[in-house]
User: What shape does this take?
Amino acid sequence: MKVGVLGIGITKFGEIWEEGLRELLLDAQLRALNDAKMEPKQIDALYTGNMCADSLSGQLHIGAMAAENLNLDKPSIRVEGACASGSLALRQGVHSIASGDADIVMVSGVEKMTDVSTEQVTTALMGAGDEELEGFNGLTFPGLYALLAKAYMHKYPALTRELLAEVSVKNHFHGARNPYAQFQNEINIDTVINATMVADPLTLFDCSPITDGAASIILASEATAKKLGTEVYITGSGLANDSLSLARRKSLTRLDAGHAAAQRAYKQAGITVKDINFAEVHDCFSIAEIYAVEALGFAKEGEAYKLYKDKQTYFDGKNPINTSGGLKACGHPVAATGVKQAVEATMQLRGEAGLRQVKGATTGVTYNVGGSGATACVHVFKKMK
Amino acid sequence: MAGIVGWGAYIPKYRITAEEIAAVQHADAKAIKAGLGLTEKSVPGKDEDTATISVAAARNALARAEINRKEIGSVYVGSESHPYAVKPTSSIVGEALDIGNTYMAADTEFACKAGSATIQINAGLIDSKMIKYGFSIGADTSQAEPGNALEYSAAAGGAAFLMGPNEEAVATLDFTCSFTSDTPDFWRRAMQAYPSHAGRFTGDPAYFKHVEASTKMILEKSKLKITDFKYVVFHMPNGKFPLRVAKKFGVTKEQIEPGLVVTKIGNTYSGSSILGFASVLDIAKPGDKILVTAYGSGSGSDSFVFTCTKKITAAQGKAKKVNDYIANKEYITYAEYLKHMEGIHQ
Assistant: This one.
């Protein structure tokens, strides 16, 4: 399977107080069209990821909004899969083309999160967990990931507090080199460890922020993409699911859905982990990146710490992870994140990633998670000559 | 234009430290002090409210003005903690000051600039010769929900300015202007005990946008440069915000610090920028120019340019100064603080 990436667009991520949900989405859509040098009427279908617009902005019907923004009457659907909404929209776009239903598709992700209180956002995000087993009993997402961190660090004490902090330190290092990132400042281990405690052992600097932002990507069939001289293609898409609640997982020290999604995507793309030059992964909390690199196969279970001990995950290291700054530094407008990962992968493969460019990259993967691991979606991006 | 013929301040003597609040809230006092740029705040006594603070400040202003109080034609009191939702504070103040019954009166509310707005109202009345003297007062016993970040800064105090003809003024009002927009950064709805705020939204799109726009406007209007001013006062919701604006406009430490009362008493809301103004009037010399920019959430800024006259020196010693009130303090515990605030707000 090969689906070409014709264009990418991304807004600045952060507290974008001057723009609402619709404007953010439109901004990303127009940037993608501009990048692809296309007119809206060339789009056959639209898929837009969004998780929180109904609970935070009182707005549903995002599919219609995405089409209306471009004055189109083409099929347009909102896709929701919690924080994985963006990558699920991407997968729907890929399938729409693969099925022959559409030739050119626009995939977007958008989230407007900073107009309401932190309490309201925390409640809305908890919709990604199991309301009966977790939310009703008072658990929040920082709490869920803190439980995972406790379980992992108990079983694998080689992942020290300091090495876990390296995840955020590296992501801020990359964010400082990404003009779209919410936080463009470098930090050190002390900053992470001494920050305000959110949910033991996770401090404020282990947690991704609340962010406004949108990203769009325009896809096309292989034939059309080749005709247009497209360099970057999606060659694999893997999706897997697990229980909503942590209580019903087989293991708390690995995310099974992540492992399964990676294997399915790799198989479709015909690659192994050794072929991968970089990965954009879901670090909603620092510990989530540890699970991610193990799910993708960069390390065996319990051994991810080695990558951080040797600083392999920097853009110029052996296994570059989250060159965009990840969710921690680039920001996490939840449903935009999955599409942002695809934008970053495309920028890397095109050689447009500036100060964070991975040299000679030809294959990259994106890994997007919904909830505490109930959904995992992996895509393989390849540069074709 | 009209000018100020007398000024006065009042700050309750009770103080609570950031450490005392942080200990109860299990918070990091050091980080809070560094983040807000203040160490303690004033707390009203159990029998003090916006009316009593206004009266005490106004009496000090009258002591400096030495006029026939029956000639006072208006009393305007700005606050976001008027004791009554319906029933004016201004009439209580007028009665307590024994100024007769032939005065205009109203209470104003525009978050933290309710007091400074009354300076503009009286300037208009005096310039149009509708009145000879008028009282402009801003005072608050501001509310903060226990556990909220506002608890460290929401303080009590106020200042009063008796305004009158320029020829009698200790400081002439040379220019004033305002910058206003509908920006909901901080609010308290009817029947609510405590205000709500929009976190970091209270910064760039609210305080900084309005304070900077209004200050820029008055500099253009007056054709004055920042270096022309001896003292500069910006509204002080905390110790950090006014210093950031000061840096942007090139205001020196010597210009801003004399009016930066927030670091010692907290944010007195409607009393905040005007208490800073009162504190520089306490030490200013004839000819000194003073720039004041107030800010009220919701949002708006009022800017003023004043020039001190020869009359100011004699007036300074006739009443207690802002620093006298700052120095007169008694520390209370968090439990006592709750008891004080309960008596006022419930």
Summary: Residues 206 and 286 of chain A are 5 Å apart (CA to CA). Chain A touches chain B through seven residues (CB under 8 Å). The first helix of chain A runs from residue 21 to 36. DSSP finds 14 helices and eleven strands in chain A.
